[in-house]
Amino acid sequence: MLGLSTCCRSGIVKDGDELLETLQELGTEYFELDYRIPESLFLKIKPKFKSKNIKIVSIHNFFPYPEEYPHLKPSGDLFLLSSLDKEERERAIKYTVKTIQTAHDLECPAVVLHLGKVEMNSYYKEFCRYFDSSLINSPEMDSFLTRVGEKRQLKFQPFLDSVFFSLDKLNQEAEKRNVCLGVENRYYFHEIPNFREIGMILQKFAGGKIFYWHDVGHAHVHDMLRIHSHQELLETYSPYTLGFHLHDANGYKDHKVPGKGEVDFYWLRKYIKDEAVKVLEIHPQASLEEIQQGFSFLRDLGYE
32 FRET partner, CA 20 to 30 A, in 132, 136, 165, 181? Predict the structure, then answer.
């Protein structure tokens, strides 16, 4: 099974019928619903899933986008499960519970979660500057990595504690609804979880409904920026992986069509269990033909 995230079109196609028709042209009947779809649009397209043979295999939190917050940009980080502010954390839990309930209603097995961040500088511009200047393996970069790593280590614990508090409540809801939660590896250095925190979360909720969700492009970017090894991430956590976001990357630019970048998808395949949810998560700049080519590329490698 290879699915497709609606993110490839949900931000540019606002009519429900047109969105469904467009998605059905892309070579799959399996989809992940993404957080850009507002509740009003979801209520229009939901009754048509069955008649159009559309199967929802995963949902990306927060879904559907709550239209009572029109001033906020739709995002997987709309509210932070890591927040030290009680009101924001409770909003994050409330709307994640709604996502879980939606998944249950659609008989969808998986919800993908962003957990938030450590409140500190992301140092993204600095990482990119070292990469663009071909200094990524320099002594200067070594010193930079040590310095920012120490800063993150000093600050992370209260934010991770908030994540644990949030996940404890969400795990209870997920168990009640029989929906699995996938904790996604993130793009920016300061986001939660990093490599070590993934293990801490999996250990704390072992036996529950919380698993790891591997975003291939994010992992490649972290490898390129020397934040963490893609191979070690897979070797350590692939046994606990609920699903994969499949997209290609060049350097620190991700969400490209598989086969159009640097990711070795032949090498990656051995880490993916047959039962794992596999979803192409491609930016909206890709054409329909390019997305279809991405499916063909992965199928030729045995992904389906």
Answer: 165
Residue 223 in contact with residue 234, Cβ under 8 Å? Answer: no
SS3 sequence of 64-117: CECCCCCCCCCCCCCCCCCCCCHHHHHHHHHHHHHHHHHHHHCCCCEEEECCCE
Give the pair of three-digit tokens for residue 37: 């779809």
pTM of the model: 0.96
**What domains are there in the chain, each with its CATH number?**
3-300 (3.20.20.150)
The per-residue pLDDT for range 139-166, each reduced to its tens digit, is 999 999 999 999 999 999 999 999 999 9
Q: Closest Cα partner for 28 from 62, 60, 58?
A: 58
Judged by DSSP in three states, 45 sits in helix
